[in-house]
From TrEMBL:
Gene3D superfamilies: 23S rRNA-intervening sequence. Residues 1-21 are annotated as: Disordered. It comes from Jutongia huaianensis. InterPro entries: 23S_rRNA_IVS_sf, bAvd. Residues 25-129 form the bAvd-like domain. CDD domains: Avd_like (cd16376). This is Diversity-generating retroelement protein Avd.
Length: 139
């Protein structure tokens, strides 16, 4: 085996403890679902925009995922969650621009907007819970 890692029985990803822990956060799962949907949408973007606009959109998506995972692992989460909130606002801006420039139709725009709003509600609740724990810890 050497330095290879083994998670559970071979061929059965459901016994993977790391996968179980990563899927524990609902916001992380919703973000992954959004990413999967957007990747299928990016195919419909014009070729001229794939190296510019789409690349920036993808970078923003990955940065948001990185911030969510980082917040999950950190003890002090408040600033990381606020950075994730800023990144989420950028994702909303990319979605608006995609619709304004007619890269996506209204149906896809509404679907992505709803997914972003759901993620925003989850993130907002997480931020509020962190503020509450920081105020109760200070008393």
């Amino acid at each position: 085996m050497g330095n290879m890692r083994r998670y559970g029985a071979p061929g059965n990803p459901e016994t993977d403890e790391g996968r179980e822990q990563r899927s524990g956060l609902i916001i992380l799962q919703r973000s992954k679902d959004l990413m999967k949907y957007l990747y299928t949408s990016f195919v419909k973007y014009p070729r001229s925009e794939k190296l510019g606009f789409v690349a920036d959109y993808k970078k923003c998506l990955f940065q948001f995922l990185i911030l969510i995972i980082t917040a999950q692992k950190k003890y002090f989460k408040k600033t990381t969650l606020q950075d994730a909130d800023v990144q989420l606002e950028l994702l909303r801006m990319f979605n608006d621009l995609s619709y304004d420039m007619k890269f996506v139709d209204e149906k896809r725009y509404i679907l992505v907007s709803e997914k972003l709003c759901e993620i925003g509600r989850l993130l907002g609740g997480w931020i509020r819970s962190q503020k509450e724990t920081s105020t109760t810890a200070g008393k």
